[in-house]
Each structure stands twice: as C-alpha cells, then as structure tokens.
Amino acid sequence: MTQDQLTAFAAETVTATQRALPAALRPLACAVPVHYETLPDADTLAEGFPDDILGLFFGDPHGSSLNHDQPQPPQIILYLENLWDYAEADRRIFRNEVRLTYLHELGHYFGWDEDDLAARGLD
Q1: Which tens digit of pLDDT belongs to each residue from 36-79?
Q2: HSE of 9 in the Cβ direction (CA atoms, 13 Å)?
Q3: What is the CATH number of the domain that holds 32?
Q4: For residue 57, which of 111, 5, 96 has the smallest C-alpha distance?
Q5: By residue range, what is the domain housing residue 58?
Q6: Distance (Å, whole) CA 58 – CA 73
Q7: Total count of domains within the chain
Q8: What is the model's pTM?
C-alpha cells in the first residue's frame, strides 16, 4: 500500500467520522486540521513518545485560554505507517483504527483526559 493510498483511505475515514458526529460537535471537529504523516519524526520521538504511536494531538484544547508555551495551533496527526502495521495490512481494520485514533485525538482537543477517553471506549 502506498503512502498516497493510505492517506486517501485515512482522509475518507476521517471525513466520514466527522459526518457521523453529533451536529453540535461537527464544526468543532472540522476546524481542527488533520495531518497524515508516515511515521513520527525525531522531535516527536525525542519528547518521549513511542515509535509506534498511532496519532497525536498538538495545541490547546477547545475552550481553553491561549497557552503561550504552546506555539502551535490545535492539530491532529495520524501516523499512517504505524496504523497500517497495527492493522496488519487489513483495510477494514486500518479504517476502524483510523476512526478510533482520530476520535481519541479529537477527544484531547475537547479537553478529555485518558480516563474520559477510556470511559467513551476511545482508549
């Protein structure tokens, strides 16, 4: 599977996931850019994240005051090669894991911590 194919599958899945969100959450979700990267870069790994991380949320959560220590606007990154490996090259599992990972990272944007995410089945 090529990076372009994985990106297309992932983008289609994210769009479908956004459409399925409750109407009140849809505009908030669509406002957070989603980036599709092959693997985490050296800076991300240097921050202590594992090399097999599936996704990451950067930025301040929705509704929080601007944090001057966080220079990046809110964004979600999905690591496609890791997601593909996790899915063991199965397209159905890949799409499902993209959906779950996107929702997990979106939950961080909404200000949910790991316990909140687990309570919603997004851990």
Answers
A1: 999 999 999 999 999 999 999 988 777 665 556 656 789 999 99
A2: 21
A3: 3.30.2010.20
A4: 111
A5: 3-63+71-119
A6: 7
A7: 1
A8: 0.88
